[in-house]
Amino acid sequence: EPVEAHLTVAKEVAGPRIEPEIYGHFVEHLGTGVYGGLWVGPESEIPNTRGWRNDVIEALRRIEVPVIRWPGGCFADDYDWRDGIGDPAKRPVRLNRWWGRVPESNRVGTHEFMDLVELLDSEAYIAANMGSMSPMDTSRWLEYMTSDSDSTLAKERRRNGRERPWRVKYVGVGNESWGCGGNMRPEYQADLHNRYATYLHDTLRVASGDGQRDDHLVEVLMERSGAHMDAFTLHYYTIAGEWEDKGPATGFGLDRWAKGLESALGIEERIVAVSGIMDKYDPDKRIALYVDEWGTWHDPAPGSNPGFLQQQNTLRDALVAAVSFNAFHRHTERVKMANIAQMVNVLQAMALTDGPRMALTPTYHVFDMYKPFRGATPLKATLETPRWREGDIELPAVDASVARTADGRVVLALANLDPRRSARVRTNLSGAVQGRILTADAIDAHNTFARPDVLVPTPYSAGGEGEALTLELPAKSIVVVDLPR
Ligand code: AHR
């Protein structure tokens, strides 16, 4: 017998529209996240467009990437943009200090990254180096990229092959300044942020924010630097265990299933806490909250370089993505951007590659299923859901999100987190809905290069003309449906 849940959807909106940037991405020079995963080089036998592999690009185009944060992460605060411009053969090779101390060829630099942004019809979010370079380095980098003038830097860009300036909408002022971005005290970071932000023009200034549940840091940055930022960031990783014992990406038991989902649901509490502090200093909500790193962090794949953060991606990761999106949708008054860590081959990736082979992950499919939510307006909804237990963890079975699209359709996302029991969700809506479902028998179902279609969305429909709408959700499933107006 399925458990019963009730969803009551109101006509009133619950907040401002869901910005498409909530479905943003993060690409770091880390492991095979860039080299191999996205970039193979123009000379490669793997089909590519000016070096970017076609299979991955085509897949990413299908999920419509709104924004890409680059080049890090921790890498960003150790990166000199000058290393990545000019003749590729003359670019210096550096050690990637944070991620495996492997050589960084700088083959992918500003021109190549901006080409990726344009190939994907996306926006650039440049993470600038506040940890180990000067404000002048960042302002010159921006001038190089965005100036239409005859300045020496603009001319240098043209000589390097790019006539028109690029558009750089977002600039991150450092990354995790409390850790790999310089191990700063919040007070020191706030002063430094203000200094760096002074030299940033015509771009949205994003302050490096919380990643350690540090309310004091949020207070200090908001109080001292609020006037010099357009957005503040939150990093939140889902760990199905402890930092020292994250647990495997596959082959886990129900205890790790429950722990992972409990951790994922915790993102909302952190969003609420950070937003609460932001409200004190910015009651008009001028400053946005960008969750510019989020996703699962599991033990590295067996046999892989631990510094490469490679991991498989299962049905559990798909549910983490679904509940995270639902949480972002519930807080659109502040959350205007989110960037999953990371795009390819690193942490909770969209695609995994091995030489010429590629497999799309369950997380990719969740991004695809949630596409109708972009630009839609969240509606007020009340959900009564049964709960389920695993050991000492108790969690809700059903998690939901409802929004109205610009053309008047109602989009509904429902996730059943219970690994054992199906759920019957009765609603106050009526009519027939169509959409897709993502589910599998095994809690760690995943796609491999040999079997890339183990976990793909399949068609789903429920209800009927003039009938009360009830949706049946199998155990551990995600359903996204559309109710025509
Ligand atoms: O995404 C991996 C790393 O996690 C990033 O480089 C850093 O910002 C965070 O600690």
Which runs of at least 5 residues are low in confidence (pLDDT < 50)?
none
**CATH topology (level 3) name of the largest domain:** TIM Barrel
The separation of the N and C termini measures 32 Å
> How many domains make up the coordinates?
2
Estimate the mean pLDDT confidence.
Answer: 97
Any guess at the CATH architecture of the largest domain? Alpha-Beta Barrel
**Briefly, what CATH class of the largest domain?**
Alpha Beta
Annotated CATH homologous superfamily of the largest domain: Glycosidases
Assess the beta-strand content as a share of residues: 25-35%
The whole-angstrom Rg is 22 Å
Pfam families: Alpha-L-AF_C, ASD1_dom
InterPro entries: Alpha-L-AF_C, ASD1_cat, GH, Glyco_hydro_b
Keywords: Carbohydrate metabolism, Glycosidase, Hydrolase, Signal
Family: Belongs to the glycosyl hydrolase 51 family.
Summarize the entry for a quick read.
The chain is of the alpha/beta class and 485 residues long.
Features:
485 residues, EC 3.2.1.55, 2 domains, signal, binds alpha-L-arabinofuranose, 25 strands, alpha/beta, TIM Barrel, eight-stranded parallel β-barrel, Alpha-L-AF_C, Immunoglobulin-like, single chain, nine-stranded mixed sheet, 9 helices, 29% strand, non-reducing end alpha-L-arabinofuranosidase
Structural topology:
Elements: E1 3-13, E2 24-26, E3 48-49, E4 52-53, H1 54-62, E5 67-70, E6 94-96, E7 102-104, H2 110-119, E8 123-128, H3 135-146, H4 152-159, E9 170-173, H5 186-198, E10 204-210, H6 215-225, E11 231-238, H7 254-281, E12 288-296, H8 315-329, E13 335-341, E14 351-354, E15 357-360, H9 362-369, E16 377-384, E17 387-390, E18 393-396, E19 398-404, E20 410-416, E21 423-430, E22 433-439, E23 458-462, E24 468-473, E25 477-483
Parallel strand pairs: 1-21, 2-5, 2-13, 5-8, 8-9, 9-10, 10-11, 11-12, 12-13
Antiparallel strand pairs: 1-16, 3-4, 6-7, 14-15, 16-19, 17-18, 19-20, 20-25, 21-24, 22-23, 22-25
Helix pairs in contact: 3-4, 5-6, 6-7, 7-8, 8-9
This protein binds alpha-L-arabinofuranose.
Alpha-L-arabinofuranose binds at residues 28, 72-74, 175-176, 293, 341-342, 347.
Domain Alpha-L-arabinofuranosidase C-terminal: 292-477
Organism: Marilutibacter chinensis
Subunit structure: Homohexamer; trimer of dimers.
